[in-house]
Amino acid sequence: MPTDNQQKAFNKRAFISTALFVSGLILPFSGFMNHSYQFDTLTIGRHFWMSVHDAAGLLFVIFAILHILYNWRALLHYAKKAKERFLTKEALAAIVLVILVVGLISSHAFHVGK
After folding, report:
1. 108 secondary structure, DSSP code
2. Which long-range contacts (CB under 8 A, 24 or more apart) does 103-108 make?
3. Residue 16 CB burial class (10 angstroms; 0-12, 13-18, ≥19)
4. At 38, phi and psi to the nearest 5?
5. How many Cβ atoms sit within 10 Å of the Cβ of residue 67?
6. CA 69 to chain centre
7. Computed over its alpha carbons, how large is the radius of gyration of the chain?
8. Which residues have CB under 8 Å from 56's CB, separation 6+?
9. Does residue 3 register a pLDDT over 70?
10. Mean pLDDT across the chain
11. CA–CA dist 54, 59 (Å, integer)
């Protein structure tokens, strides 16, 4: 345990990862709230959720870039290992899941206003 004279250094990687995680958690909720206010005039509530979503999105992008920069060597290591296997069953399952969920959720746009 560090003494008063030996304070532990600020861990930038942990800070960036946590900020990325928290801003990523805010995005779906604020996006849902934005969606629920979409047909309102510019009320205080709608403006608030638009601002929350925009700020969280901007922070998410900034911290994602910083996360990539701070973990560049590990990412290169993963990329080199990925060359050994073209497509794992886990990668294929993740790709299919994301495409299905995004497709299902976004398909409601074709049913609005009919």
Report:
1. G
2. none
3. buried
4. -60, -30
5. 17
6. 16
7. 20
8. 23, 26, 27, 30
9. no
10. 88
11. 9
The gap from C-alpha 47 to its chain's centroid, in whole angstroms, comes to 22
* Sole residue written with tokens 């629920």: 36
Higher local confidence (pLDDT), 24 or 42: 24
pTM of this structure: 0.70
For residue 61 the two structure tokens come to 């992008």
The residue length of the chain stands at 114
Backbone angles phi, psi at 43, to 5 degrees: -85, 170
Residue 66 backbone zone (phi > 0: left; psi -120 to 50: alpha; other: beta)? alpha
Instruction: For 45, list phi and psi in degrees, rounded to 5.
Output: -60, -45
Q: Give the span between the Cα atoms of 9 and 2, in whole angstroms.
A: 10
How many Cα atoms within 13 Å fall on the side-chain side of residue 78? 7
